Amino acid sequence: MDVSEYLGVFLDEAKEHLQALNDSIMTLEQEPDNEDCINEIFRAAHSMKGMAGTMGYKRMQDLTHDIEDVFSDVRNGTLKITPNIVDTLFQCLDAVQAYVDNITETQDEGTEDNANLIKALADIRAGGGGAAAAPAAEEKEAAAEDTAEEGAEEAAPAAPVSNADAPWYRIKLEPSAKAALEEAKNEGKHVYGVQVFVEETCILKAARAFLVFKGLEDIGEVVVSDPSTQDIEDERFDLTFCLIFITDQAPEKVVEIVKSVSEIEKAEIGEYDLGGAAQDAEAQEGAEEAAPAAQTPEAEAPKAASAPPAAAPAAKPAAAPAAKGGDKKPVGKPVVSRTVRVDIDKLDVMMNLVSELIIAKNSLISAATSSGAVDKAVTSQIEYLESVTTNLHESVMKVRMVPLENTLQKFPRMIRDLNKSLGKKMELTMTGEDTEMDRTVVDEIGDPLMHLLRNSADHGLEPTEVRLERGKPEVGQIFLHAFQDGNNVVIEVGDDGNGIDAEAVKQRAIERGVVTPEQAEAMSEKAIINLLFNPGFSTAKVVSEISGRGDGLDVVKSKVESLSGEEDVRTKLGEGSTWIIRLPLTLAIIQALMVEVGEEKYAIPLDSIQTIEDVKPSEIKFVENREVINLRDTVIPLVFMNKTLECESTRAPEDDMVVVIVRKGEQLAGLVIDTLIGQLEIVIKPLGKYMKRCKFISGATILGDGGIALILDANALV
Amino acid sequence: MDALMAAESGENIQYIVIKLGGEQYGINIKYIDNIVRIPAITRVPKVDEYIKGVINIRGTIVPVMSLRLVMDMDDDEITDKSRIVIIKTESDDLIGVIVDEVYQVLTLNTNNIEKVAHDPNSAKASFITGVGKYEGGLVSILDLASIELDNIDGKANARKEDKKEGKKDNK
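Structure tokens for the assembled complex are given below, as produced in the milestone run.
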């Protein structure tokens, strides 16, 4: 079977399961007796095993199988969770992750057998039950390994279901089919009724059913099935289907074939009694009783009785489908998933088209204005068009939004590992995991956040002894809060550790030649702390494996800025520090204020604008040789855009100045421009690598008349 | 077999011949995306002198550079014949170069192109891979890799260094 087209689904699900395993094992570490958790782990490991097997990833299948085994022991109570076991399990998960990564890259799982891990798992199981319990455990776990399958395999052939209420008697027989059955009987062949149960977690039920049919047809003939073959092919069935089957083989053989298909939970088989078919009508009436009836033969099966814990779960799934099968119509409509998985590339294309549309709309507006063809009808249609494009843009943007959760999920595990490797006690609290952001931003922001968290763990939190000395709780708190703030998403990462020692930073900066001692003297505490974002700066005295050689914070800075975001830090010595990352919700289309400097048009993102002021030239004051204005008791430095942009100002020196006050974090600056044009929805286009040396231009946009306006990056100007 | 034939009879390549300061230069036609009249060029502040600005080509923003300035000639004089040749580089970026005139399309056989030795002291020579001969005269074949950003920078810096006599400019 060609499985490549399912690869994407497989990888997605594998990642989900891995995450579930990580989460659950973390919980289990805290509450070793949490049964829900154990069951969850067992399920996830089991599904992973099945999926890996289906896709032909043998090594991954083996490893997950062994993980599953360990948990079946845990579930049966023969094994207690110890920190040791948890560590081994985490290593296993990392190994599985490595398989998944390999598959993502090369479609191949790689050649690492992880024999040591498999052995470690085996040791856990051998040691876990103790000498006396060992044989019992073995037996139990053999039964539990695939409880349902085991139960069915042993129970069904040993006590073939002869009850007239068996589900296959409810199949309506066409006269021709009946004749075929009778003929087969006369020829001395066996006629079996078979009920096949598909695993709940099965992804491709139709494909599994198809394989069952194919396998059976090698040794006999499937006369009729319920639901019909067509319905089965279209996946219009629940977790079970029945069929009547003619063969000269023994029932065990039939069951074996059915079960050789993966993700088939079990199969029940019984000799089909043609006389029984006559009871059709009664059988349907007796549908209600079918559930307990189906349960009986299994419970009576000798093997099943000897291992009641194993048989009980096996009987339950059997009961449910039997009851369902009793409905007049087999559940015809599968529950349709309400989501669609879409390739991110398609969304990119869509976003580009929306961008084009907005440019076209802007062109239309400017064409209509300049040609003088502005009557009421045109204006109202243009306004309508404007609202449609804006809504369209918003919808497409929303489609691209995913919760931050996917990125944040891995952090609890990371902090747990750091706990051990750093020998500090710490705890991570996260809020706002459901905050949504553009997919590309979410993908990119993981690394900077990881840097910040590691930083907090490594440099921020004091060693446990110091904490106790200072009267702080022994367990250090690390937090990550994400929330939406207007058109931005804010992520705060912080700790209740030592905070940043500005004096130490200053000394360090001077040592490293980042600033001269004179410069350092003149710098505010805030400015000094911001030096931390300089490349090649680290305050930790020891280079550690956790947070590297101080290349962390400048990576954070450059990454955040490449996403058009900004970063800031708040710190209080002795009480901890908080790093703040502020990111725009969307990257492609923004609202901007169009301005003119000289003869040229520029766009300033509306997000960064605080206010727009008219300022008389006489109000300009000088502080430290910089031109500033005093605006409502705030001193704001001025940036003359015509000087920065190297062009001639069109404003006469004695005229009032138009000053756009922009904000970066808590800092303000006043951009002196010549003329205001107005607000415009603009599409950001990259300027390309030839222009990247121009720091304060973040991109360009195409105007309605086909011209280009450059976008000013307020962050670089403040 | 084909390769053998090609080696003997050479390969025919089409070039767009442009004029720059009275000389003819050939650009391999397969790298040319478009040729346009000079539109309004939006100046970008604080970039190298040879970058004239950006233009809008079907909704894409394309940087425009002056080949004349890159090659250490006088600045462009925009006339009716001036054009911008949009080139698609190996790394799939679009870049426009201003030329004095687009002259003709020429098919040259590789056998008729002579390789030139690199002369590190001549700004022009480092942008040329060879010289083609045809009835109309000589045409210098432009080395398009050389106008990619990294190479230009290298050359510009190298020239700067020559002038400054040494001292590495650590960019």
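Residues 344-400 of chain A form one domain. Chain A touches chain B through 25 residues (CB under 8 Å). Further analysis is deferred to the final report.
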